Backbone:
């Protein structure tokens, strides 16, 4: 086993370890690059006020993206997250007007999210539908409709103290919503890297048929990720409703696209089985920073979508190039050692 | 003695193809049964029906004398059937240890529900490494995803997994097809050890030498039907080959 | 005058015949909901008229409204009152007119299209001008302001911005005018960013209601006192009215959707029954401020 | 080979052949069911006028879905089709105001579509991006922005005669756009079932790495499907612009979701390699009929999204159930024969 | 005689794993070269480098005495290298004929560019059927997708494909691993026929009997290095096995 052992020992050598670390950190490096560029372009960018804004603005996408990540890890897709957010916010507002208790409202919003998620997961699994695209597209439509119907199409003003705090409170310049994101991220990191259930999520994404054959409860795992994604939408609804002190059937429009984009831009695989919470967070921050930057730099409204498109591709592309350069570097490095 | 596993009148059809046609099969504890047949004879299909991957269109399965339903792989596994599939059913995105323990991870604490327990990753890596070393498969980077590994390395992982968790019946579909000389030898030894420990073993193989060496009995399928059973001995070799190939060729 | 018109028709011989008319609005937001509710109320008093309702998916959903128009023609309506998403609808509306169906445009006009029987609308451009003039009086010359645009490509929303800018005067500079799609969250985000980049702005003008409510949250979270920054919205939605009453939003341009709805449907019915109708009915705009807000709530 | 030959002969027997046919026709059956239900619910539905409307309203989704199908067959996704449609329509309108020639305008619209498609395809392939989601999301944003910028955000009235005819002309109650869809469908049927290139499209979708190893020009095949999808968006732009006699930067909003939904609801695999033009057409018609039905039945605007969601799931689910019943029937049938 | 194919100093590294370490290899027209080695020795990696799937980190490839670059599978194929990969590289969603002709479909008319030509599906089905019958692989439904076929049926399709389009060099990575007795026999005959026709053939196999029967020369890899070459004869068998397994075990 000398060759292998040797190779392993070489893996310990510093430049190589650094290179491997850099690969893992790839998207983070690009994110840092983005930050550097932005702070050079706009003096307002690196102010605490603005950093707080970026975090608060990215919080909703980040939470949704973490939920979406779990779904995508199992080779799925959840198109309903934006509508679920809207429905949860409206439910919260209606509950608040009936029973003005903070915890009850929070529970109602979380439960709404999980209920939509359960419909997605169970509809997909028990209905033996060919792809989750179908059921989550249906709930994308139906949850929004329900939110409109429940609210009579009207935004509902007023949210309990605790929801407002989660949405717009802050410790210094650090918004509370950033802590909330951190807590959600931590919990999901724990799930995906340390817990049996998380291992099963990766197994189902890597080989669904194989997972079935190894007696992993595939159906329950699949249902669970949609419920968790719905829960994430409920949490995101709390943040949004708190930021705007309202529940509205128009909240979360196109959030499904944002959340999927965050996961994919952040470097997780759209095809399942590969990726982690870090990818979702990085992707959400990238999107948040790009949008924030457009506004800070007063980019013309017509040109904004063009610039956003170009920057997204450039960010991902620079990570691709970085990866290639690095693997070339590793070969040279290893050949020398 | 009651057979560990008995299959009666197994019939399975895929669209227009009759893959199994009234197959009977028994295997006893401490016995190695070789399942032989040409390509497309129905061997893998029979195995998948026993392991709960496919459902039989007709026929029944008994274990220890009692009728059972292996409606899903999970049910079959719970009944004590451990299988290595021909296509291996590995998780290409996970490392060998994760593949090894997929579905029965070492985790704790015990008072938590299964899914919420924390993985004991170091324990799993260690045991996996030891077992693979026993099979003499050198795996350069034990933390690489198995999707990147060589054909033989992959097969060794799948075989070691089934052997490690063997309970009543162990089924191996062409377990040495991709293995080198030394690794094949180890797998044959493994099978013999399983027999000694009282497991019932079903092995699919095209390698007559291996079959003659390890099998107590050979059942031959041809186009979905069982056409005969025989004790595989060097003397019987030609007879078995004729059974496999059939009179009409 | 319009009420008497209907009763006259009720007495005419053709009126015994029940009539089917369509009422199509852009998409479900409170502005159009108010309009639809007004039509439903009106309809209760006019059982001889069957009103079919239709709605698109967004403020720019030309295809959706086209499909609605086509379905209504298939169901044999005699007149359509519609809040057209854009001038692009004139083609399909002309088809309706050619088939003998009267068309009344509500909320906004399709300029240059001769097929319409009447336009019952607020002039968005005029509303914008009203806001611009109002703002010009309240911000000092030399100060800077920001504009939260609506949805790019939506003519009536664009008019509100164009009109405002035309009367604002040269003394005031617009430093930023991002699009918000009339979305509350996007309004909040944009306002936060603008306040970070241009902390000294004197006012924010919104082409629709929700972004201004979002901006209000941004102003609050930036630690500014209400009134330190002049917020002016458009539509005078319930949320805005509440904020105006509380002194947090300075003003909003009010239109009268209920009036538009009931007059619109009435005009459509009258046109279908062969009566002559006014070519343009302006339902008017008004600046809502803390002083007169009580009258709007 | 008696067993196999026997089995083959049995395949020829009538009930089995019918059953197999029914499987192929599955989604078509569900479509017919939908038609029957609709015509029972609304007397206006089966009028020629309304059928013409349904065809005209479905034409745009159908053309986009056919393009999207090709992309999905290669395991890809094209999120940009709606924005491409808008950009092509604006380009057409601007070209028309500069050079009022029908053919020139048509060519300009088609070329615009293909150009965006080429950017998608080449960006994805040559940029070695991990997934087409990224580049087509970028062009979703950028093409819309460009359309806004070019048009100054204003709809541009006026289209040449030929475009108007394609969009709103009809032969009796049959709209010309239906013939256009038929022509596009026929061409793509030819491509996918008869031509070498089409075979390669399926090969790339079935096993991209395998396709590379068998010397199929994978990169060119992948680029081509995005170009064709862009071309389809250009054709769809002609229909939309003709229908509304205008070019506008707001056309085709959310058309990407509609087109993907049509493909998947129609029964093609979201995971690539399986499906055909028929699936795209059936899916587009289903969506068209459901929307038309909502309007005919005066379903409350708030409830429409709910009903649409529920009907979509029910349609797909009934096909799943039908498939299962049928395979059970086939087993019984075959066992008897 | 100039070798049909010569590899010099082939080196390939995957991350920390050195899969090939300065391997030299030549094979002549009309010769069958067996490439032997334990699991994970680097056989498949070497083959993939020759066929253009991987790029060599260092080393060179010559064909007919001239240096060539097999930068992509298409380039390798154009140079006359035909390969059966260990993982078969089949299209699970297509039928056997479509798999068979993937990338070189029979189509016309000739004046059209390749991609636009119309498929001659009947011709392709007929030829595929004939070739598979020659290998004695019974395929029940020739229009079913190969994803549904048995392991041996799939392998037979892949092998028949390479053999049918053989040009200068034919490379077969464990071509009989999943095949039955009769089918294996046919494939061995096929290899001998390829040799007679003057093709250079490289075969990877773990079956020593097969190697001894058909190979003119055997090259042995161990952990990425070539450790020897030998003429495989029954007498040499033990020596070759020792080379494969290595002194240190
Ligand atoms: N899921 C399936 N759908 C349709 N046909 C199938 C399916 N699985 C197997 N078959 C067919 O059933 C027959 C038996 O296949 P099976 O895999 O059992 O053969 P086998 O004896 O294992 O052959 P091998 O030695 O090649 O592995 C073959 O003709 C095969 O094509
Ligand atoms: N793409 C890859 N990425 C990383 N490691 C790889 C890759 N391909 C092969 N390896 C490693 O390179 C080594 C050689 O693998 P290779 O497939 O060449 O072995 P082999 O001789 O063909 O073995 P077998 O007989 O099992 O097929 C193994 O350790 C394997 O894990
Ligand atoms: Mg098999
Ligand atoms: Mg190999």
Residues:
């Amino acid at each position: 086993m000398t060759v292998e052992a040797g190779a392993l020992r070489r893996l310990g050598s510093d430049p190589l370890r650094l290179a491997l670390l850099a690969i893992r950190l790839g998207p983070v490096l690009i994110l840092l690059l983005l930050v550097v560029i932005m702070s050079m372009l706009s003096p307002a960018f690196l102010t605490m006020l603005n950093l707080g804004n970026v975090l608060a603005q990215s919080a909703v996408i980040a939470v949704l993206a973490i939920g979406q990540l779990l779904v995508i890890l199992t080779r799925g897709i959840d198109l309903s997250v934006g509508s679920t957010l809207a429905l949860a916010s409206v439910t919260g507002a209606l509950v608040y007007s009936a029973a003005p208790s903070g915890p009850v409202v929070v529970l109602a919003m979380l439960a709404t999210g999980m209920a939509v998620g359960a419909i997605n997961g169970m509809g997909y699994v028990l209905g033996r539908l060919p792809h989750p695209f179908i059921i989550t597209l249906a709930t994308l439509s139906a949850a929004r409709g329900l939110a409109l119907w429940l609210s009579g199409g009207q935004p509902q003003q007023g949210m309990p103290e605790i929801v407002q705090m989660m949405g717009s409170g802050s410790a210094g310049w650090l918004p509370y919503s950033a802590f909330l994101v951190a807590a959600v991220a931590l919990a999901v990191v724990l799930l995906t890297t340390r817990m049996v259930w998380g291992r099963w999520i990766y197994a189902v994404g890597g080989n669904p048929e194989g997972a079935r054959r190894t007696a992993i409860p595939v159906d329950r795992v699949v249902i669970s990720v949609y419920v968790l994604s719905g829960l994430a939408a409920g949490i995101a609804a709390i943040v949004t409703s708190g930021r705007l002190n309202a529940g509205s059937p128009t909240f979360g429009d196109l959030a499904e696209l944002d959340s999927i984009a965050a996961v994919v831009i952040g470097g997780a695989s759209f095809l399942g089985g590969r990726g982690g919470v870090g990818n979702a967070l990085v992707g959400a921050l990238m999107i948040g920073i790009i949008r924030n930057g457009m506004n800070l730099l007063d980019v013309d409204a017509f040109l904004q979508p063009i610039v956003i498109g170009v920057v997204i591709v450039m960010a991902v592309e620079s990570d691709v190039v970085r990866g290639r350069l690095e693997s070339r570097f590793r070969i040279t490095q290893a050949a020398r050692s | 003695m009651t057979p560990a596993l008995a299959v009666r009148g197994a019939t399975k059809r895929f669209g227009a193809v009759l893959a199994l046609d009234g197959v009977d099969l028994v295997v006893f504890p401490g016995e190695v049964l070789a399942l032989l047949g040409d390509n497309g004879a129905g061997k893998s299909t029979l195995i998948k029906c026993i392991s709960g991957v496919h459902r039989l269109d007709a026929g029944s399965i008994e274990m220890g004398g009692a009728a059972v339903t292996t409606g899903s792989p999970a049910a079959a596994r719970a009944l004590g059937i451990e299988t290595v599939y021909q296509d291996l059913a590995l998780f290409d995105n996970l490392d060998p240890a994760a593949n090894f323990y997929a579905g029965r991870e070492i985790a704790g604490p015990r008072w938590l529900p299964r899914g919420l327990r924390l993985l004991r990753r170091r324990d799993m890596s260690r045991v996996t490494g030891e077992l693979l070393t026993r099979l003499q498969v050198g795996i350069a980077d034990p933390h690489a995803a198995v999707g990147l590994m060589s054909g033989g390395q992959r097969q060794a992982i799948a075989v070691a997994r089934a052997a490690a968790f063997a309970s009543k019946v162990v089924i191996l579909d062409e377990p040495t097809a991709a293995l080198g000389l030394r690794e094949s030898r180890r797998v044959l030894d493994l099978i013999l050890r399983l027999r000694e420990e009282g497991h019932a073993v079903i092995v699919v193989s095209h390698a007559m030498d291996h079959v003659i060496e390890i099998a107590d009995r050979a059942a031959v399928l041809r186009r979905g039907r069982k056409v005969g059973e025989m004790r595989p001995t060097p003397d019987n070799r030609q007879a078995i080959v004729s059974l496999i190939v059939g009179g009409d060729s | 005058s319009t009420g008497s018109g209907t009763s006259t028709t009720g007495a005419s011989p053709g009126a015994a015949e029940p009539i089917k008319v369509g009422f199509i609005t852009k998409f479900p937001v409170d502005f159009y909901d108010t309009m639809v509710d007004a039509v439903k109320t009106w309809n209760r008093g006019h059982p001889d008229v069957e009103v079919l309702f239709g709605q698109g998916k967004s403020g720019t959903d030309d295809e959706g409204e086209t499909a609605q128009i086509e379905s209504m023609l298939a169901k044999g309506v005699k007149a359509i009152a519609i809040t057209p998403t854009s001038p692009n609808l004139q083609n399909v509306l002309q088809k309706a007119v050619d088939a003998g169906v009267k068309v009344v445009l509500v909320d906004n006009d399709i300029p240059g299209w001769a097929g319409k029987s009447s336009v019952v609308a607020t002039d968005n451009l005029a509303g914008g001008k009203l806001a611009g003039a109002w703002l010009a009086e309240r911000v000092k010359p030399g100060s800077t302001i920001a504009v939260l645009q609506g949805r790019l490509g939506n003519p009536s929303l664009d008019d509100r911005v164009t009109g405002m800018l035309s009367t604002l005067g040269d003394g005031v500079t617009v430093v930023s005018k991002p699009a918000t799609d009339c979305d509350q969250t996007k309004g909040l985000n944009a306002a936060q960013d603008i306040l970070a980049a241009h902390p000294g702005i004197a006012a924010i003008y919104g082409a629709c209601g929700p972004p201004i409510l979002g901006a209000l949250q941004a102003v609050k979270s930036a630690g500014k006192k209400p009134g330190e920054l002049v917020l002016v919205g458009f539509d005078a939605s319930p949320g805005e009215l509440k904020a105006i009453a509380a002194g947090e939003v300075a003003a909003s341009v009010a239109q009268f959707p209920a009036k538009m709805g009931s007059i619109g449907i009435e005009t459509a019915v009258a046109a279908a029954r062969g009566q002559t109708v006014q070519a343009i009915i302006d339902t008017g705009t008004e600046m809502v401020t803390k002083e007169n807000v009580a009258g709007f709530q």
